[in-house]
Write a structure and sequence with these properties.
Length: 460
């Protein structure tokens, strides 16, 4: 395929010791020869095997030295994109790396679209579509485990399973097609039985992959966990204790938190999206009231609610309201401020209500946070019965395609069961085969590709 030469900053923008500007395409060498010099200012030729040069980056028009650093030459096909690639590892200043990028553009490269490097790797046949998407999930992975799952996909586990299923489908279809050409009754029966038998086993495998999609989603997006309670019970203190950092403002003034604050924590390898909210109470303050509305909304959106209660004082009417507001959702009662002792009236009151777990902690002293995490893990374990070795689908597009494939397969089996014509069965099998191909990008139209790759970040 014919491509132009593209470039982008491949690292995150910000102060760092190095930043990488990536250049890929057939004229990567010529482009970079215009802007790279040796340390002593001599010109450089990018040819032959991979190499690393310590040199200068200059502007192609003015020849002004912009920076110096390591320049990596990686000729295709042994590079990320399978094309000729030059990576300029320069100092990490925000302006500096922009200047380097501008020099590369001035030397003749085009600014890459988001995900275009990975798209090329795909179009050049180095990785399949599920691997390409997994690269994106890897970039976004929020915990080690989620990262590992994405990495497995990069390595092609998911693709291997789909390919194996497609192979069986092709064999099955061939069997059916052959029978169409030699139509004898008993042979037709055998073919139909085969469709039912192989179909049933394939259906199971597809179902397993579909079921994994929910786990995949959790690994990618985290379990939405709302921290709610009346003002001043220690919600923000709990967020900070779980994050092990002073993320949220904590004061002894009720109504401190007004906006919704989201942060990710890793609980036993499962990402939680913790949402700290405004304390729920009746208030005249307009800003606080908006916060309270958002707080109520977050209860509705949550998959798990941590109801924070101040156990050191008798309960208030606002606590009663909290208990009522959360009774329909999965909740854990977090009894805070145990460092001050538990109030007997509070204890009696709480015993009237039920939750998935009740944990006593001190957010301020960071006591029993591990116990709370253990309980959270236990409560959500059911959602993510994680088999550490299975194949996970982390992607809604793949899930939808698998569902279509599933329907087609069931159509083929129903047709076989009802003794329909073999042509009808063959068509349904063919659709199943094609849908599965779409999952890993083996029969994918250009539009869909653009759509998928445009969701990548720049420089990948
Ligand atoms: N003794 C004690 N004090 C705590 C504990 N947790 C929080 N506090 C104190 O309670 C006060 C309120 O804490 P916050 O974390 O701001 O409470 P909040 O629920 O976020 O309050 P709003 O944002 O106003 O709704 C602060 O003075 C905290 O230091 C605890 O475990 N023990
Ligand atoms: Mg707060």
């Amino acid at each position: 395929m014919d491509f132009d030469t593209i470039t982008a900053i491949a690292t995150a923008l910000g102060e760092a010791s190095i930043s990488v500007v990536r250049v890929s395409g057939p004229s990567a060498a010529q482009v970079c020869e215009r802007i790279v010099r040796t340390k002593s200012g001599k010109s450089v030729h990018f040819e032959g095997d991979r190499k690393v040069i310590y040199g200068q980056v200059v502007h192609p028009a003015s020849s002004d030295v912009i920076d110096e650093g390591l320049i990596l030459w990686m000729p295709g096909p042994h590079s990320y994109t399978a094309e000729d690639v030059v990576e300029l590892q320069v100092h990490g200043g925000v302006q500096l790396v922009q200047n380097v990028l501008e020099a590369v553009l001035a030397a003749g490269a085009r600014m890459a679209e988001p995900g275009e490097f990975t798209k090329r790797a795909f179009l050049n046949g180095r990785i399949d579509l599920s691997q390409a998407e997994a690269v994106m999930d890897l970039i976004r992975a929020k915990t080690d485990f989620a990262g590992k799952v994405a990495l497995q996909q990069v390595k092609g586990r998911f693709r291997d399973e789909i390919r194996a299923m497609r192979k069986e489908l092709i064999a099955l279809q061939a069997h059916v097609e052959v029978t169409i050409d030699y139509p004898e009754h008993d042979v037709e029966d055998v073919a139909c039985r085969q469709v039912l038998e192989t179909g049933a086993s394939l259906l199971q495998r597809i179902d397993k992959l579909i079921a994994s999609a929910n786990v995949g989603r959790i690994l990618r997006d985290g379990i939405a966990t709302a921290i709610v309670g009346r003002p001043n019970v220690g919600k923000s203190s709990l967020l900070n204790a779980m994050l092990r950092s002073d993320r949220a403002i904590v004061t002894d003034i009720p109504g401190t938190t007004r906006d919704v604050l989201e942060e990710y924590v890793n609980v036993h390898g499962i990402p939680l999206k913790l949402v700290d909210t405004a304390g729920i109470r009746e208030t005249e303050d307009i800003v606080e009231r908006i916060g309270v509305d958002k707080s109520r909304q977050s209860i509705e959106d949550a998959e798990l609610v941590l109801v924070v209660l101040d156990g050191s004082v008798p309960p208030t009417a606002e606590d009663d309201a909290m208990i009522e507001d959360t009774k329909a959702v999965r909740r854990i009662f977090v009894v805070n401020k145990v460092d001050k002792g538990i109030d007997p009236a509070f204890e009696t009151w709480l015993s009237n209500y039920s939750a998935a777990a009740v944990v006593q902690i001190s957010a301020k002293e960071e006591m029993y946070i591990t116990e709370l995490e253990n309980n959270i893990a236990r409560v959500i374990q059911a959602d993510v019965s994680i088999e550490r070795d299975s194949t996970y689908m982390t992607n809604a597009r793949q899930k939808n395609l698998l569902e279509v494939a599933r329907t087609d397969l069931i159509n083929a089996m129903d047709a076989a069961d009802a003794g329909a014509t073999l042509d009808l069965i063959a068509v349904a099998l063919q659709s199943t085969y094609e849908e599965l191909g779409l999952v890993i990008g083996e029969e994918t139209g250009e539009d869909l590709l653009d759509e998928i790759f445009s969701r990548f970040c720049l420089g990948k």
